[in-house]
Design goal:
Elements: H1 2-26, H2 29-32, H3 35-56, H4 63-69, H5 73-93, H6 101-126, H7 128-133, H8 138-158, H9 166-177, H10 179-194, H11 206-227
Length: about 240
């Protein structure tokens, strides 16, 4: 059991480090100049991650039920990808100049809602959680983890930048984050042939799991490279 718990703990720790480093390097000027503010926003990020893990169970994958009790490695991988994706969303929403902490919360909340919305679409179209929770399919866990991490990367970048207004934030979110919808459509197509079936009840984790996950991440990284620096990014 401990063998499955420590990767989850490492993922949580890595997520908090990502948030803290992002705030220290690219947060608002007053945040970068004050360690106490970096600590506070990182602690708020920890609360954000805890709340997100509670929502994960609504999608059919639970840390307590699937990882701790059933020792499901596929669920562990999917949840780790989801946590890192949410951490990137929170970090992205906290980057740039703003008037108050509520600007950060609005931006991070918008990105998180986007990820959960796309996850719902994927679940309704492919029922990926059943493959992970019930069939313990490692390839499905890798695909979902990679997908959630990739769209977290895209939507986190879409919420980064100086605060202008709520309307401007929403506009930039859709303008810069639309490729997350393309990734969702791609994931739906891949799930049609990659998920377990009567013809292939035990798909190979490498070509039907790892490869699609890396493809999602490569496409997400390519979009970030295309966008370049966000507005107000410190040099």
């Amino acid at each position: 059991m401990k063998a499955l718990r420590w990767p989850f703990g490492v993922t949580i720790a890595a997520s908090l480090i990502i948030i803290a480093v992002a705030l220290h390097l690219w947060g608002a000027e007053e945040v970068r100049a004050d360690v106490a503010q970096v600590f506070f926003l990182t602690a708020l990020g920890a609360v954000w991650l805890i709340l997100a893990t509670l929502v994960f169970s609504w999608f059919g994958i639970s840390y307590r039920d699937d990882v701790v009790e059933r020792r499901n490695v596929a669920a562990l991988i999917a949840l780790c990808g989801a946590i890192l994706g949410v951490a990137l969303l929170y970090a992205g929403g906290s980057l740039g100049e703003g008037d108050s902490y509520w600007d950060n919360i609005f931006s991070a909340g918008l990105g998180t809602a986007g990820v959960f919305g796309l996850w719902i679409v994927l679940e309704l179209g492919a029922q990926v959680s059943r493959s992970i929770a019930e069939e313990r399919d490692l390839a499905s866990g890798l695909r979902l983890g990679g997908f959630l991490l990739a769209i977290g990367l895209v939507l986190g970048r879409a919420t980064a930048g100086n605060w202008v207004s709520a309307m401007a934030t929403v506009r930039d979110f859709f303008h810069d984050g639309w490729p997350a919808g393309v990734l969702c459509a791609l994931a739906l197509g891949i799930e049609k042939f990659a998920r377990p079936s009567r013809q292939c009840p035990l798909p190979k984790w490498s070509n039907r799991g790892l490869f699609p996950a890396l493809l999602y991440l490569a496409l997400g990284a390519a979009w970030l490279r295309h966008l370049g620096a966000w507005e107000g990014m410190p040099e």
